[in-house]
From TrEMBL:
Protein name: alcohol dehydrogenase (NADP(+))
Record keywords: Metal-binding, NADP, Oxidoreductase, Phosphoprotein, Zinc
Cofactor(s) required, per the database record: Zn(2+)
EC numbers for this chain: 1.1.1.2
Quaternary structure, from the entry: Homodimer.
Keyword Transferase: no
GO biological process, one term: alcohol metabolic process
Coiled coil segments of this chain: none
Keyword Zinc part of the UniProt annotation: yes
GO molecular function: alcohol dehydrogenase (NADP+) activity; zinc ion binding
Reaction equation(s) it catalyzes: a primary alcohol + NADP(+) = an aldehyde + NADPH + H(+)
Residue ranges of every copy of the Enoyl reductase (ER) domain listed in the record: 20-353
Family that this chain belongs to: Belongs to the zinc-containing alcohol dehydrogenase family.
Length: 362
C-alpha cells in the first residue's frame, strides 16, 4: 500500500542547521512494518538534544536529520500486527526512543528497561534493524514502532503532553527511581526544559522540599511558582556551596554544559545522597576530588529518558495531580527561529511546535 501522505519536515543537512538553517524537504521514512503506527503530527517539543544532534555535538550526525522527539498527533495508520490498543484516530505520542530489540533474551527489554537496551533506536538520527533511518517530529508525519507509541490520556492537552515524552520522562524517571517522595529533600540543577519538569514532578511525587539551582536569579520567581521551596543562584553567591552544604538527599542535574561546578554540587549532598546527571554535555565533565564522594558515602549516576511503561505511569500521575508544564507554542513553519531561540536559552520553559498545516491550532 502506498501512503496517501508525504513524509516531509524540517531537515538539518549539516551542523549549521542548529543555527536555524533547517530546510523543509521530503524524505524516505522507515520501511513500513505491520507493527508500526503512522502519526499525523500536531505537536512537537524542542529538546536540548535536538540541538546537540543537529550540530553534530555528540558525534557526527547522519544527515539529513529531522529533529524532534517529543511528538504528539493522531494515529492515521495502524499495522495489522500492532498488539497495543491503538486505533486509527487515537491521540498518540512518541518520545526520544523508537526502537529496541524487544527480544526475550535481552536483559533490559525483558525487564521493562527498553531505554537501556544496547540496541536502542533514537526517534531521529537512528537506524532500524531493517536498515531504515529514523526521522523526528519537526514534520507532518512520523512512523514509529507501536511498542514506543503511547496513548495520551484525554485530560492532557496535546501541546502539554508533547514535551513530557522526553523532557518530562527524563526528569521523572530519576526522581521516581531514586526515592523522591515524602521525607526527601531534592535539588534540581538547571531551570530549563528538563529542570522545570524536575521541579513539577518532585512536587507531584511529594518531596519534602525542592531546591532549584540555577546560574542566576532571573528564574527565581518562576521556579518558586513551579513549586520550588528554595533557590540557589550559583553565579551570584560565591559561598553558595557552603551555605547549602549537606542539605539534599537527591540532586538531578539537567545542565547541558560541561562547565559546571560539579564538586560544589556534590557538597550539597547529605550522607548517602545521590547526584544523578541527565544533562548530556558535548564534552567531559570537570574532574572532581573523590573525597567529595567517599567522605559522605554519596553516589554519582546517570539516567536515560524512561521506558514506555514509565512514560505511561508519568502521564497517569500528570493527569491525577493536574501537573501543568510551562510551554510556549510556536508555529511549525517558524521552526528555524524557534531553534535559534532555544539555543539562546529563551524558552520558558519548553517550545512546542504546532503543525497548523495538520489543523492544529495555536
Ligand atoms: N539523559 C537523557 O535521557 C536526556 C534526555 C533529554 C535531554 N537530555 C539532555 O539534557 C540537557 C538539557 O536539556 P533541556 O532540553 O532541558 O535544555 P535547556 O532547556 O536548554 O536546559 C538546560 C539548562 O542547563 C543550564 N545550563 C548551565 N550551564 C549552561 C550553559 N553554559 N549553557 C546553556 N545552559 C546551561 C541552564 O539552566 P540555568 O539557566 O537555570 O542555569 C539551562 O536552562 C541537554 O544536554 C539534553 O541533551 C538528556
Ligand atoms: Zn529529548
Ligand atoms: Zn533489548
Amino acid at each position: 500500500m502506498t501512503s496517501q501522505y508525504k513524509f516531509q519536515g524540517w531537515l538539518g543537512l549539516d551542523p549549521s542547521s542548529a543555527q536555524g538553517k533547517m530546510q523543509w524537504k521530503e524524505y524516505e521514512p522507515k520501511t513500513w512494518e505491520e507493527t508500526d503506527v503512522d502519526i499525523k503530527v500536531t505537536h512537537c517539543g524542542i529538546c536540548g538534544s535536538d540541538l546537540h544532534t543537529l550540530r553534530s555535538g555528540w558525534a557526527p550526525t547522519i544527515y539529513p536529520c529531522c529533529g524532534g522527539h517529543e511528538i504528539v498527533g493522531t494515529a492515521v495508520r495502524v499495522g495489522s500486527k500492532v498488539q497495543k490498543n491503538i486505533k486509527v484516530g487515537d491521540r498518540v505520542g512518541v518520545g526520544a526512543q523508537s526502537g529496541s530489540c524487544l527480544k526475550p533474551e535481552c536483559e533490559e527489554c525483558a525487564s521493562g528497561m527498553e531505554n537501556h537496551c544496547p540496541r536502542m533506536v533514537g526517534t531521529y538520527n537512528g537506524k532500524y534493524p531493517n536498515g531504515s533511518k529514523s526521522y523526528g517530529g519537526y514534520a507532518d508525519y512520523c512512523r514509529a514502532p507501536s511498542h514506543f507509541v503511547i496513548k495520551i490520556p484525554d485530560s492532557i492537552p496535546s501541546a502539554e503532553a508533547a514535551p513530557m515524552l522526553c523532557g518530562g520522562i527524563t526528569a521523572y524517571s530519576p526522581l521516581k527511581n531514586n526515592g523522591c517522595g515524602p521525607g526527601k529533600k531534592v535539588g534540581i540543577v538547571g531551570v530549563g526544559g528538563l529542570g522545570h519538569f524536575g521541579i513539577l514532578y518532585a512536587k507531584a511525587l511529594g518531596a519534602d522540599s525542592i531546591t532549584a539551582i540555577s546560574r542566576t536569579s532571573t528564574k527565581k520567581s518562576d521556579a518558586m511558582s513551579l513549586g520550588a521551596d528554595k533557590y540557589i543562584a550559583t553565579d551570584e553567591d560565591p559561598n553558595w556551596a557552603k551555605h547549602h552544604a549537606r542539605s539534599l538527599d537527591l540532586i538531578v542535574s539537567t545542565v547541558s554544559s560541561p562547565s559546571m561546578p560539579l564538586e560544589k554540587y556534590l557538597q550539597l549532598l547529605r550522607t548517602h545522597g545521590q547526584f544523578i546527571q541527565v544533562g548530556a554535555p558535548e564534552d567531559r565533565l570537570p574532574a572532581f576530588n573523590v573525597f567529595s564522594l567517599i567522605q559522605k558515602g554519596s553516589r554519582i549516576g546517570g539516567s536515560a529518558i524512561g521506558a514506555p511503561h514509565e512514560i505511561e505511569e508519568m502521564l497517569e500521575l500528570t493527569a491525577r495531580k493536574g501537573v501543568k508544564p510551562w510551554i510556549q507554542e510556536r508555529p511549525l513553519k517558524e521552526a528555524n527561529q524557534a531553534v535559534r531561540d532555544m539555543d539562546a536559552g529563551k524558552a520558558r520553559y519548553r517550545y512546542v511546535l504546532v503543525n497548523e498545516g495538520n489543523d492544529a491550532k495555536l
